[in-house]
Amino acid sequence: MSFEWKGVMPAVTTKFTNEDTLDLEMFATNINAQLDAGVSGIILGGTLGEASTLDEDEKRILIEHTVDLVQGKVPVVMNIAEQSTKGAIKAAENAERYGASGLMMLPPMRYKSTDYETMAYFEAVAKSTTLPIMVYNNPVDYKIEVTLDMFEQLLKHDNIKAVKESTRDITNITRIRNTFGDRLKVLGGVDTLAMESLLMGADGWVAGLVCAFPKETVAIYKLVKAGRVAEATEIYRWFMPLLELDINPQLVQNIKLAEVATGIGTENVRAPRLPLQGKERKRVLSIIDEGVKTRPQIPSL
User: Is 206 annotated for ligand binding?
Assistant: First the structure.
């Protein structure tokens, strides 16, 4: 499937039953809400998707089920986050075989690779697949930065197309644009910097709170791209306390609680994650409750 790296691409949560199996019924409810809101793609198997707890068969089921749900309306992108190059190549081959349209790729997990090793890792996977790749650049959380010099080399591979820009440095978007023009598509990857990233020229937004609030997320993107910045700002200011729930070690639990509040998810997480408890649970619920109560009207788009 040919597609453009742009628009809102939810990094969706994986839904589980009370018995800790895949909850495909609730998963479908959420995916349909995303499609109805006008998202541009679905990203599976990220941090929000609890990918580190999923086995290979569950990943296969999620890809195949999502491909069936979207019916070609949007691309299905699988995240690759592996400890070894061999494992990453296998994961990419599996994603392609199961019907994914693209890949989002993290650097090697657990090992802080050198620039040379990081490049070799990305290049080996790029050579192993025909799928387009978005490099996930998040040195804050994963301690490995993909620099502009590294991207210059990576772009020699025709299927490396985009970056999920999560350096937390908005000026990096301008540096990317100045260096590569449109050769490297940029999608903002930090919810609390999303509108700023779009205003500085990002092509899209890999979003987290979209899992619970798809219409509001898509509205911000469309309004910014239409030059209606004041209207986008009003929604973004309402959204910010909720977006801050994504910048937290318990982002999965936080966002799943928000999905419960908007009727498109459950609270079930997979151990070792556990549902929020005590004061922190009350704090998060109060933010979500206030957000739901004051949910803004979406202007005509």
Answer: yes
